[in-house]
Specification:
Blueprint (H helix, E strand, L loop, with lengths): L1 E2 L5 E2 L1 H7 L3 H8 L5 H42 L3 H38 L4 H26 L1 H7 L4 H12 L2 H19 L4 H24 L5 H26 L18 H29 L5 H38 L3 H28 L12 H24 L5 H26 L3 H26 L2 H8 L3 H14 L10
Antiparallel strand pairs: 1-2
């Protein structure tokens, strides 16, 4: 601890690593400062804490999303059928594995974070291996869905031509399932130790390799190998990320206490880990599958290829731009929990306001850009003029959705937001979209309008709850950590044979 300018002890180390800065609470509580001066100082302090947290997360999310998006771009230039097939395979099938693997991998973040805080560093490596084994086993039934996706898609009402092309694309994504199974535990393992920059550097370098290999696979290996070549390259790129991150763990020296080699303890407690990880996976899957359902519904319209093409272009743009908001959402969760844990209710409330404001400003800028480019945006995916006209008509819906999402992501309560999302999406969004799309014959516009209805309800609920929150009460509740600490210790003791912590040298 060092003394601040006014004699107040400020935790400099904590400020640098956890984002807690008691100057923000002090500024917000200083009634002697003029209101606008207080607001200016507080905003500057909050932005200094927020952006270093958000920037690495935004970068990784953007790069990983753009790898998948670029694959659809290459496929789109092979033809409208190939774009629809890649979009259906990606959004209709691949998101199944992504949501399940990411959700189950999130359990590693909790366990590794608890072990790291308890200085039981060797357990992080064991949790990493245990999670990888469970996720690899989970990938086997998912692989069967990929293999038999053609009859499944036909059973769901897709045309045989579209289902056949989508199946070719999906078969090339089978290796990606197992890359997910290894990648997500590694990411959470590193994040628990606050090692975030290497993942962004690795993802950036892999993106360059991915673009080059995709160009070769799609355009140099012939039209017949275009779809399967593009998806195989995407799978390969994810395995490059996995190999590079694991290589970093082995040779960097930063993980020498947390990775002590392969251990037979990883094969114990597999069922307990599966049960623990299933809970976090179910809710995330319900959110992820919402977009899959919309794509599958669009495939049932009268002109499914055009509907899927236009919806794919807009959803791809939305998915990429939404990664910015997702990064700020992660930063919001950290900032609010940090401030509440430190007993700073004013800072927690101000953090929520600032994150919402920044997310909203960014979303408005994105919406303006989308509207300005609405007549040409589809040509990045396909050269078809018919698709371009359909996309330009959908862009106002896309812009409005971006603004709504920009407001909603800033609240930072992940568990509560997940329940709100599922309720609004499945109770309002999907039924309303089906009614407007089929009953009122609005097509893909009706389906998207249903999504807007669900998102609007979500935004209203989150803003109302945020406005009504008693932040002093939240800080008081958060300060009662004894039960959670004991619970974490019990879990660690249950799954660990050696109880003595491995201290850093």
């Amino acid at each position: 601890m060092e003394s601040g300018e006014e004699g107040v002890h400020e935790p400099i180390l904590i400020e640098g690593r956890h984002g807690i800065d008691y100057r923000l609470e002090r500024v917000l509580s200083d009634a002697q400062l003029p209101y606008f001066k207080r607001l200016q100082l507080a905003s500057w302090l909050e932005l200094k804490l927020l952006f270093p947290l958000a920037a690495p997360a935004v970068l990784v999310y953007l790069i990983n999303n753009f790898m998948s998006l670029s694959t659809r771009l290459f496929c789109g230039h092979l033809g409208n059928l190939q774009l629809a097939a890649a979009s259906l395979g990606n959004s209709g099938v691949q998101l199944l594995a992504y949501g399940l693997m990411l959700g189950m991998g999130s359990a590693v973040e909790t366990l590794c974070g608890q072990a790291y805080g308890a200085q039981r560093y060797e357990m992080l490596g064991i949790y990493l291996q245990r999670a990888t084994i469970v996720l690899l086993l989970t990938g086997l039934p998912l692989m069967m869905i990929y293999i038999f996706c053609k009859p499944i898609l036909i059973l769901l009402g897709e045309t045989e031509e579209l289902a056949s092309a989508a199946a070719v694309f999906v078969w090339g994504l089978i290796p990606q399932i197992f890359a997910y199974a290894v990648n997500f535990p590694i990411q959470k393992f590193l994040q628990a130790q606050r090692i975030v920059a290497p993942s962004s550097y690795i993802s950036a370098a892999t993106l360059g390799v991915h673009l080059l290999l995709s160009w070769v696979a799609v355009y140099k290996l012939g039209l017949g190998l275009g779809l399967i070549g593009a998806s195989l390259v995407l799978s390969l790129s994810w395995w490059i990320i996995v190999g590079a991150q694991f290589g970093y763990i082995l040779i960097s020296g930063e993980c020498k206490h947390t990775w002590t080699g392969f251990n037979v303890m990883a094969f114990s407690g597999l069922w307990e880990f599966f049960k623990l990880s299933t809970g976090s996976a179910v809710m995330l899957c319900l959110e992820t599958w919402y977009f899959q359902i919309l794509v599958l519904i669009a495939g049932l319209l009268d002109n499914p290829q055009l509907a899927l093409d236009s919806l794919a272009v807009c959803m791809s743009v939305m998915g990429l731009l939404f990664m910015v908001s997702v990064g700020f959402n992660a930063a919001a969760s950290v900032r609010v929990s940090n401030e509440l844990g430190a007993g700073n209710p004013k800072s927690a409330a101000f953090s929520v306001v600032m994150v919402n404001l920044v997310s909203f400003i960014i979303a408005v800028i994105e919406a303006v850009v989308v509207l300005a480019l609405r007549h040409v945006i589809s040509y990045a995916f396909t050269s078809g003029e018919t698709v371009a006209n359909a996309v330009s008509q959908l862009c106002p819906y896309l812009a409005f959705t971006l603004i709504l999402n920009g407001v909603a992501v800033g609240c930072g309560w992940q568990a509560f937001v997940a329940y709100v999302n599922v309720g609004c999406y499945y109770v309002v969004g999907i039924p309303l979209g089906c009614i407007l799309g089929f009953k009122f014959d609005l097509g893909v516009k009706g389906i998207w309008s249903g999504m807007i209805g669900g998102t609007a309800m979500q935004t209203i609920i989150l803003l109302w709850v945020t406005f009504r929150t008693d932040w002093n009460k939240e800080a008081t509740l958060t300060s009662r950590l004894e039960f959670q600490v004991e619970k974490a210790k019990t879990r660690l003791d249950k799954w660990e044979d050696k109880k003595e912590p491995l201290l850093r040298s």
